């Protein structure tokens, strides 16, 4: 009929959709490794944007409805309303599939009864037997096709939910208010995107069995009653008992999942901070406390993981032995009631129990487990989605949420408009003022009206992974003439010419492949290129030297932007003369009108402005001298392994969790468990007298050894994951800094989140299941061969075909899985980068563009994931069809009733088991790519040992003499040399300033001293060759105040003293010295207050002061200050310098600075250029050379500033510090370079 024809056409189209179109891809994959170009475009129905907006609309509707009803919105309801219709339809097919599984044993029973009463002359019976055989054949073929169509569609449903949730999570992250960001972390969001949403991939597969299972049990009970009478009640009672037991297991899984998720959040958050701040951690030698912190989180995570794994082991053992126990109890009662066991009754009963065994003991329990885990994940995602968002259109003044007092207060009875250029002076809340204008801080009171489009250059330069051109254009169309003009105005033209690929050079995560000066100029160029009405520039000149800063001010801020309103936050007072209005900020915002400002201003400001030099139109011009190419590295692509997963990789994985003895015990227990399991059913062929004894013993052994095997297996595999995580983290801590410069955060976090997540949960389950099923398959074949030897004639060729198919499939599937891993990394990298630059993204109104980029990354990952799902179905369907053919051949072979019963029973079991074993073994190999990726990070290049046999004296360095002898330095073996033939000596107690243009090699000097990469040549500290010392022995004896201050998400106490080496009094005194004591006392828990992620509730200047307090606590003889005062105001700079002079007067101090007044009172100044020392002498001496670089740098600060600097240098020369002169008794070799 047309209806039947239409159904057959539908089945054929579905069948083809899962099979034929993949054949070309498999042919390519068999010949060579797949690349991203080989992937198919994602289907429209799986696009991230479409799915996300659909689910978002249901969530918005739920939020509105809940707001009206004054109750909390339920994300679970929104998900159900969005997907219930399409998913409900799949339930019907689930029901049909399970019904077919029940029909099969009934037909088997009729067929066996024919053989039991076999009569060669009974043609009617033969005809019926043929119909039964045909019915069984059709059932087998129907199951082979329908199961995979159903399975594939349930997986697609889970994929849609996951992709939609990821889209919503990222969309929400772009809208979070600052107070909301304090309640979450990058680590938590990464965990939501990697582990929480992945629960829905599995949930949709099993969920329908929650209602199909009980119905199936009821139907089987009725059939069993007709077959063996009341005896079946015992077995059914045990099955019904298992259901609430599984429910309880599910609840326990939920508890452990909740605990594990929180700990995973904390671990990934810490990992994010460790990777981000690795340079600082290495210079402070803080690897061990961070290793202890991550280890603490991981240990608690493993404890909960081990508990849930033991529950899974109990589940699997129940599944493994439940059918045997049920059969034992059923037939024990059956025999006790005086009945006789027959082949048909045994095999029909066993088959009927087998039909519901999977559903009740595996699918039903898996559904409950996944459901409870998913409810936990939904609750966590719902909590995140309910976080406060930034108001859409807010034009008001704000306060920081972590401060009780007002940082910004509008002036009473006054209002101010923005003139052509406003300069904002510190000391403190200047960034808060810009944040208020941008609408980034919570509402307090007052109003500021902004007319026109804003653009913003942030204080800490932000770049995102991509090309330099992408970072500058920021979504705008390329206008070559304008672009060229911006490059020249921002002093980037020469950099572009010298970079390997010009402005198309890829830069790494956080801009790690660029220097600080380059990032600052790219950051400024982005703002300048925009066609905005108002430009907010937050201290853009602090990260560049005076010459480049003068060029940026003249050509960019006062050149290309001269006709635009600009608000410039700056600490460099020489530029204030050209301002139309100057706003001086103290603790309260007080605008001072007009320029010049009055005596209300700070004393330092008045002194700078009292003697006006030339008018602002007569500024010094920028030197045409070519800039030295700054140290630039190129981001590397993520590598992928090739070929099969080696046996050695499996061995390493298992050995990570146990020694050889334990593995041997595990192997023996597996064999024994399988032998007892395999011979249970054949024991029923023994006469009734011995049946109970033999079968009871075998069943008890099956249960015992099954439980021991599962628990031991899970224990070993969880221990393997724990060990490999520890090895990977230890290797990451010991990796050189260059590794973090060229690898994005997301790439590293992907290993610690998704890959470790799969190894924690999915791989152990699949590994145990695959081993169990493969051993069961071997057991079935052995037992079948013992009873019906000729079955091997069929088994051997089928086995060869199976193994060939597996090999053919894995060639492609493995590459797809590896691509899935590498296409997942950009999702996390983009998230991490977007959160770092959130203010800039929102200021540029670029949220939608970044959302589109995220969707593009998701779509690329969806391409690989969809191919992985379809390729798995391609493989599984072929295996099932082969199994169906195998069983059909057996059905039409004429055997004795007992033989045919055993053969068919085992053949049907073999059909599912054989292909499931091959599939699971293939899935294990696919999941082993995660082990492979983790193992890759356990074998990274390592820096020098932390400790060596040669230990310095306890009081080393007692003098602080530092000597560079022929030092060349490069950040990597194949990288450019950034320091050349450096010979210099820093005498004990000497204060040395290090200056040079951007990219001259100043920070590289620090890197060489701290051995962030191994320098060539020799560096001595108090006569000891530093290359012979352990890195911790070296680094712990030097203090540094870094260029980029880093605070971690921990208490203020731990940020100051992670080793707990100092008393409270010492900690408070150090804070007092840097004038932070009052700030910390105002925190809710004072020293024990948990800081926000990256210390974001402190200003950059305050974070710098915390770094100074760390240096005071360490009391080392050598102090390095690397551009530490670039982002602080002159008063804070003066405070830092005064503190250094007082607290470190007996120390050797190296100060790297762009701000020349910071180092003008140094004993000597080293001038670097192009990685070489150009001059090294007293400041006043250097200023006597008009052709010298230092003299030119001083002149570029402006006439008044230059005169002040000269006077300071002269004063130092007339009153020289004799501290470092009186060291003649030091028996050290000094390598002095004549200048």
UniProtKB/TrEMBL annotation:
Domain ABC transporter: 385-612, 962-1195
SMART domains: AAA
Organism of provenance: Gadus morhua
Keyword tags: ATP-binding, Chloride, Chloride channel, Endoplasmic reticulum, Endosome, Glycoprotein, Ion channel, Ion transport, Isomerase, Membrane, Nucleotide-binding, Phosphoprotein, Transmembrane, Transmembrane helix, Transport
Entry's transmembrane regions: 87-111, 131-152, 203-222, 228-245, 316-337, 343-364, 656-675, 695-718, 761-782, 788-809, 875-894
CDD domains, A to Z: ABC_6TM_MRP4_D1_like, ABCC_MRP_domain1, ABCC_MRP_domain2
Name under which the protein is recorded: Cystic fibrosis transmembrane conductance regulator
PROSITE patterns linked to this entry: ABC_TM1F (PS50929), ABC_TRANSPORTER_1 (PS00211), ABC_TRANSPORTER_2 (PS50893)
Lineage: Eukaryota, Metazoa, Chordata, Craniata, Vertebrata
The organism's place on the tree of life at top rank: Eukaryota
UniProt KW NAD keyword: no
SUPFAM superfamilies for this protein: ABC transporter transmembrane region (SSF90123), P-loop containing nucleoside triphosphate hydrolases (SSF52540)
């Amino acid at each position: 009929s047309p209806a039947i024809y239409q159904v057959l056409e539908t089945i054929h189209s579905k069948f083809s959709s899962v099979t034929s179109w993949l054949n070309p891809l498999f042919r390519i994959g068999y010949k060579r490794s797949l690349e991203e170009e080989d992937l198919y475009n994602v289907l429209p129905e799986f696009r991230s944007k479409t799915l996300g907006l659909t689910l978002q609309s249901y969530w918005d509707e739920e939020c509105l409805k809940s707001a009206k009803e004054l109750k909390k919105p339920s994300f679970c309801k929104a998900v159900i309303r969005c997907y219930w219709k399409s998913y409900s339809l799949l339930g019907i097919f689930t029901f049909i599939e399970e019904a077919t599984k029940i029909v099969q044993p009934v037909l088997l029973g009729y067929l066996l009864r024919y053989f039991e009463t076999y009569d060669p002359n009974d043609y009617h019976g033969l005809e019926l037997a043929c119909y039964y055989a045909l019915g069984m054949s059709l059932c087998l073929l129907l199951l082979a096709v329908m199961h995979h169509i159903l399975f594939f569609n349930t997986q697609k449903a889970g994929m849609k939910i996951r992709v939609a949730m990821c889209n919503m999570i990222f969309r929400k992250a772009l809208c979070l208010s600052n107070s909301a960001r304090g309640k979450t972390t990058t680590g938590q969001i990464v965990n939501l995107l990697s582990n929480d949403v992945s629960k829905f991939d599995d949930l949709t597969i099993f969920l329908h069995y929650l209602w199909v299972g009980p119905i199936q049990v009821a139907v089987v009970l009725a059939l069993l009653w007709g077959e063996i009478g009341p005896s079946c009640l015992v077995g059914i009672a045990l099955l019904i008992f298992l259901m609430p037991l599984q429910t309880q297991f599910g609840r326990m899984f939920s508890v452990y999942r909740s605990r594990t998720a929180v700990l995973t959040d904390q671990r990934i958050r810490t990992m994010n901070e460790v990777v981000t701040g690795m340079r600082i951690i290495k210079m402070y030698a803080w690897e061990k406390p961070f290793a202890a912190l991550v280890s603490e989180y991981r240990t608690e995570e493993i404890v909960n993981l081990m508990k849930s794994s033991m529950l899974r082991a109990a589940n699997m053992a129940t599944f493994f032995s439940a059918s045997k126990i049920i059969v034992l109890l059923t037939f024990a009662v059956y025999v006790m009631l005086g009945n006789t066991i027959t082949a048909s009754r045994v095999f029909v009963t066993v088959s009927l129990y087998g039909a519901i065994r999977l559903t009740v003991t595996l699918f039903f329990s898996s559904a409950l487990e996944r459901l409870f885990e998913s409810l936990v994940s939904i609750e966590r995602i719902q909590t995140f989605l309910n976080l406060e968002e930034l108001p859409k259109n807010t034009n008001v003044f704000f306060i920081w949420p972590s401060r009780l007092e007002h940082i910004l207060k509008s002036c009473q009875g006054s209002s101010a408009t923005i003139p052509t250029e406003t300069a904002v002076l510190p000391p403190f809340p200047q960034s808060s003022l810009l944040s208020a204008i941008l609408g980034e801080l919570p509402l307090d009171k007052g109003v500021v009206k902004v007319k026109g489009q804003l653009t913003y250059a942030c204080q800490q330069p932000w770049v995102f992974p991509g090309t330099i051109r992408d970072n500058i254009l920021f979504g705008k169309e390329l206008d070559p003439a304008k672009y060229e003009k911006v490059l020249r105005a921002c002093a980037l033209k020469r950099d572009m010419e010298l970079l390997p690929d010009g402005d198309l050079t890829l830069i790494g995560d956080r801009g790690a492949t660029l220097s600080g000066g380059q990032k600052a100029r790219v950051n400024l160029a982005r703002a300048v290129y925009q066609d905005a009405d108002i430009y907010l520039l937050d201290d853009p000149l602090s990260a560049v030297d005076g010459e480049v800063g003068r060029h940026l001010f003249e050509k960019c801020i006062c050149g290309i932007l001269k006709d635009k309103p600009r608000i410039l936050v700056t600490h460099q007072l020489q530029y204030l003369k050209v301002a139309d209005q100057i706003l001086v900020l103290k603790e309260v915002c007080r605008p001072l009108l007009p320029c010049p400002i009055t005596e209300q201003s700070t004393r330092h400001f008045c002194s700078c402005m009292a003697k006006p030099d030339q008018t602002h139109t007569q500024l010094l011009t920028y030197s045409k001298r070519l800039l030295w190419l700054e140290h630039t590295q190129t981001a590397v692509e993520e590598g992928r392994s090739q070929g099969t997963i080696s046996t050695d990789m499996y061995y390493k994985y298992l050995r990570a969790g146990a020694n050889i003895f334990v593995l041997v015990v595990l192997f023996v227990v597996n064999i024994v468990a399988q032998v007892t399991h395999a011979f249970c059913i054949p024991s029923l062929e023994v006469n009734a007298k011995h049946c109970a004894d033999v079968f009871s013993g075998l069943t008890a052994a099956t249960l015992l050894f099954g439980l021991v095997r599962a628990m031991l297996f899970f224990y070993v595999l969880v221990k393997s994951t724990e060990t490999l995580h520890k090895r990977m983290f230890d290797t990451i801590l010991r990796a050189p800094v260059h590794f973090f410069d060229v690898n994005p955060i997301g790439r590293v976090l992907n290993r610690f989140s998704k890959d470790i997540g799969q190894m924690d949960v999915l791989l152990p389950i699949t590994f145990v299941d695959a081993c169990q099923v493969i051993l069961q398959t071997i057991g079935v074949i052995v037992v079948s061969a013992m009873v019906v030897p000729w079955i091997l004639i069929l088994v051997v060729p089928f086995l060869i075909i199976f193994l060939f198919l597996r090999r053919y499939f894995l060639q492609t599937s493995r590459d797809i899985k590896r691509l899935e891993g590498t296409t997942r990394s950009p999702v996390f990298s983009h998230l991490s980068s977007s959160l770092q630059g959130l203010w800039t993204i929102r200021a540029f109104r670029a949220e939608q563009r970044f959302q589109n980029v995220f969707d593009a990354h998701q779509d690329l990952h969806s391409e690989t994931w969809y191919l992985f799902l379809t390729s798995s179905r391609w493989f599984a369907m072929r295996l099932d069809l082969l199994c169906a053919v195998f069983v059909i051949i057996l059905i039409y072979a004429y055997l004795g009733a007992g033989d045919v019963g055993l053969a068919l029973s085992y053949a049907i079991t073999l059909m599912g088991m054989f292909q499931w074993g091959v599939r699971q073994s293939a899935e294990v190999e696919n999941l082993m790519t995660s082990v492979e990726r983790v193992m890759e990070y356990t074998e990274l290049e390592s820096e020098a040992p932390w400790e060596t046999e040669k230990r310095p004296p306890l009081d080393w360095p007692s003098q602080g003499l530092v000597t560079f002898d022929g030092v060349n330095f490069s950040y990597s073996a194949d990288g450019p040399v950034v320091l050349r033939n450096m010979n210099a000596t820093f005498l004990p107690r000497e204060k040395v300033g290090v200056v040079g243009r951007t990219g001259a090699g100043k920070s590289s000097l620090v890197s060489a001293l701290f051995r962030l990469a191994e320098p060539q040549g020799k560096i001595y500290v108090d006569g000891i060759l530093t290359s012979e010392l352990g890195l911790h022995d070296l680094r712990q004896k030097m203090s540094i105040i870094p260029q980029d201050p880093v605070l971690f998400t921990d208490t203020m106490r731990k940020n100051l003293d992670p080793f707990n080496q100092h008393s409270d009094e010492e900690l408070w005194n150090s804070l007092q010295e840097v004038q932070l004591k009052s700030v910390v006392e105002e925190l809710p828990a004072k020293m024990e207050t948990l800081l926000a992620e990256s210390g974001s509730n402190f200003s950059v200047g305050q974070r710098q002061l915390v770094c100074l307090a760390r240096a005071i606590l360490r009391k080392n003889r050598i102090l390095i200050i690397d551009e530490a005062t670039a982002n602080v105001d002159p008063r804070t700079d003066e405070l830092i310098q005064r503190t250094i002079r007082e607290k470190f007067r007996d120390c050797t101090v190296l100060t790297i600075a762009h701000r020349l007044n910071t180092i003008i009172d140094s004993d000597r100044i080293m001038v670097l250029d192009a990685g070489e020392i150009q001059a090294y002498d007293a400041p006043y001496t250097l200023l006597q050379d008009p052709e010298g670089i230092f003299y030119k740098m001083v002149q570029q600060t402006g006439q008044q500033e230059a005169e002040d600097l000269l006077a300071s240098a002269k004063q130092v020369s007339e009153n020289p510090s004799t501290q470092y002169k009186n060291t003649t008794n030091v028996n050290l070799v000094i390598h002095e370079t004549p200048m």
